[in-house]
């Protein structure tokens, strides 16, 4: 299992590459949730499916995607860009679309159940994505069909730059966590996008 120090150092390396204009896309850096993710990934098998978000570097590393593959994806002009990482061999997928993976992840879990295969699906979303209707629909379907999937809400109280209080008029809390759902709160290290420093290309 990777350490907190390793994850922090890797993301600092990505921030430096962006600052030196080696990454020519907007970037969404991970940070502040190392401890929580290390604990969650202790339960995720290498053969499980992991679906992630535009902020996917930690998820990819913890699921076995090599560091050099992530850096290559970030620094070359290819079909992936900076906001989604895909590794078919390791069952790792992500999307730049808000809550873009929730229904796909649900479908993969349905496939696992109907074919009798081993394995589980883990789908990460932010607290902003958890507000979306298609997240609620996918979660409800998975729960009712007892699918082998866990949704993880990563609550940094930020949908781009808008807090839950600004979005809802109050700070919505997940006081009672239902089955099939993990929710944890954290304070992000980096801003929503970029490194907190203006970079001109």
SS summary, helix count: 7
- Low-pLDDT segments, ≥5 res: none
Sketch the topology as an H/E string, one letter per element: HHEHHEHEHEHE
Number of domains: 1
* Global Rg: 17 Å
Description:
The protein has one domain (4-185): Thiamin diphosphate (ThDP)-binding fold, Pyr/PP domains (Rossmann fold), CATH 3.40.50. 35% of the residues lie in helices and 12% in strands. Helix 5 (102-115) runs parallel beside helix 6 (133-144). The model has no long low-confidence stretch (mean pLDDT 89). The radius of gyration is 17 Å and the shape is globular. It has a five-stranded parallel sheet with strand order 2-1-3-4-5, with helices on one face. By secondary structure, the protein is of the alpha/beta class. The chain has helices at 4-19, 34-41, 57-62, 67-75, 102-115, 133-144, 164-168, and strands at 49-52, 92-94, 121-126, 149-155, 181-185.
């Amino acid at each position: 299992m990777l350490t907190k120090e390793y994850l922090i150092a890797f993301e600092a390396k990505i921030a430096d590459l962006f600052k030196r204009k080696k990454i020519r896309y907007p970037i969404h850096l991970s940070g502040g949730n190392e401890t929580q993710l290390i604990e969650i990934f202790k339960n995720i098998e290498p053969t499980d499916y992991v679906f992630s978000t535009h902020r996917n570097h930690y998820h990819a590393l913890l699921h076995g995607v090599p560091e050099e593959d992530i850096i290559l994806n970030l620094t070359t002009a290819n079909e992936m860009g900076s906001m989604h990482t895909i590794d078919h061999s390791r069952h790792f997928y992500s999307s730049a679309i808000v809550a873009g993976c929730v229904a796909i992840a649900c479908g993969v879990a349905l496939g696992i159940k109907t074919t009798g295969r081993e394995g589980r699906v883990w789908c990460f979303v932010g607290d902003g994505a958890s507000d979306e209707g298609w997240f609620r629909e996918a979660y409800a379907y998975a729960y009712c069909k007892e699918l082998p999937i866990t949704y993880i809400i990563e609550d940094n109280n930020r949908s781009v730059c808008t807090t839950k209080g600004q979005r809802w008029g109050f700070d919505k809390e997940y006081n009672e966590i239902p089955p099939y759902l993990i929710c944890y709160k954290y304070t992000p290290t980096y801003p929503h996008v970029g490194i907190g420093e203006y970079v001109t290309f």
